[in-house]
UniProtKB/TrEMBL annotation:
Main location: membrane
A GO MF term: transmembrane transporter activity
InterPro entries referenced in this protein's UniProt entry, alphabetically: ABC_BtuC-like, ABC_transptr_permease_BtuC
Compartment list: Cell membrane
Lineage: Archaea, Methanobacteriati, Methanobacteriota, Stenosarchaea group, Halobacteria
Name the record gives this protein: Cobalamin import system permease protein BtuC
Organism: Natrinema altunense
Membrane topology: Multi-pass membrane protein
Residues that span the membrane, as ranges: 24-48, 99-116, 128-147, 153-174, 181-202, 208-225, 232-251, 271-303, 315-337, 343-361
Subunit-level organization: The complex is composed of two ATP-binding proteins (BtuD), two transmembrane proteins (BtuC) and a solute-binding protein (BtuF).
């Protein structure tokens, strides 16, 4: 009996770790390397320049890293300790929050893109192409321009806008079921309409400062982000990522096709909407703090899938690391490309994502349905 129990435990351990392989480990380590390099570059440049060594020592200063009072001030909005040096304040209170927001936004967009591609069984799907980003963006723009008192509820409001957009897309695409092409076309239509409404709102903005801030936000930018944006996005990001990793089995079944999923006893439409809700929440958390950053949700799942394969858990974990590395790296480029002028990071991701997707289309004969 003891031997049988030991064998069972060993088999369980092996099965629980079966999804971890050398390819996934390589993706994780490579992404962490890119993220570390981008972080040190981002921290080093500015009106208060630092050498890479000074940046390293300040970012990983144990006096700050292991001080609960500092984290309480940053994450809960308390008073910042007065013993922090000028260099520590610049790095930890000004430059690192921008990197942390980039990490949260990159992971959210990559995870949501992967989920939408699985839910629709369409590798062209993404929050941007399905109109989710424009639906959430319209609500955020309305909040920024007309209902600024609702700012603390921005992720929730953005999620409502994204959910409404997805529902409209689904209704338009539905005809005795949906198809990958119909969902993409419906998403393009809905996104175009919502985008037109967003542009129309600018004619009703009298304050030039608000108009410029809204335009920057529509381009997708991390400029001016601080710990407040981290506090807004972090809880919703954690919730979305935990839920996403908890439904990997359902996502694997959805990948088998609707008929197969039904034969296995799954309520396909109910599961599809519930899982899509997770992706909408992740998208909303990203849009609420960084605006409409394009292409990340589309190309990161492709990049990860090409390396680790189609297993859902490996795909999501890979996206969790590659998304932040790509976005933080792109933000370094946005900041330094035309220094001292800082470009919105959404411009850089668009310049990177467009050619990559064209390359993908040229390389593959069939692109569309997974």
């Amino acid at each position: 009996m003891a031997g049988s129990s030991s064998t069972h435990d060993t088999d369980t351990d092996r099965s629980s770790a079966a999804w971890i392989d050398s390819r996934l480990v390589s993706v994780i380590l490579g992404s962490l390397g890119v993220l570390l390099a981008a972080t040190l570059l981002q921290v080093s440049f500015g009106a208060y320049p630092l050498t890479l060594g000074e940046a390293w020592r300040t970012v990983f200063d144990p006096q700050v890293v292991f001080h609960l009072g500092v984290w309480r001030a940053f994450l809960l909005g308390g008073e910042i300790p007065d013993w922090l040096t000028t260099r520590q304040l610049i790095v930890w209170n000004i430059r690192l929050p921008r990197i942390l927001v980039g990490i949260l936004v990159g992971s959210n967009l990559a995870i949501s893109g992967a989920i939408f591609q699985i839910v629709t069984r369409n590798e062209l799907a993404s929050p941007y192409i399905l109109g989710i980003s424009d639906g959430a963006g319209l609500v955020v723009l309305l909040t920024l321009t007309a209902f600024s008192g609702l700012m603390p509820w921005l992720p929730v409001l953005a999620a409502a806008g994204g959910a409404g957009a997805f529902l409209i897309v689904y209704v338009i695409a539905w005809k005795n079921g949906t198809s990958p092409v119909r969902l993409v076309l419906a998403g393009v239509i809905v996104g175009t309409v919502f985008g037109s409404v967003q542009r129309a709102l600018f004619f009703f903005i009298d304050d030039l400062g608000i108009a410029m801030a809204a335009q920057t936000w529509l381009s997708g930018s991390l400029l001016g982000t601080d710990w407040e944006q981290v506090r807004i996005a972090l809880p919703f990001t954690i919730l979305a990522l935990v839920l996403a990793l908890a439904v990997t089995r359902q996502l694997d079944i959805l990948l088998l096709g609707e008929q197969t999923a039904k034969s296995l006893g799954m309520s396909v439409e109910r599961v599809r909407f519930l899982v899509a809700g997770i992706a909408i929440l992740a998208t909303a958390a990203a849009i609420a703090v960084a605006g409409l950053v394009s292409f990340v949700g589309l190309i990161v799942p492709h990049m990860v899938r090409n390396i680790v394969g189609g297993d859902t858990k490996r795909l999501l974990v890979g996206c969790l690391f590659v998304g932040p590395a790509l976005l933080v790296g792109a933000d370094v480029g946005a900041r330094l490309a035309l220094n001292p002028v800082q470009l919105p990071v959404g411009i850089i991701t668009g310049l990177l994502g467009g050619p990559y997707f064209l390359y993908l289309m040229r390389k593959r004969e069939h692109i569309g349905e997974i």
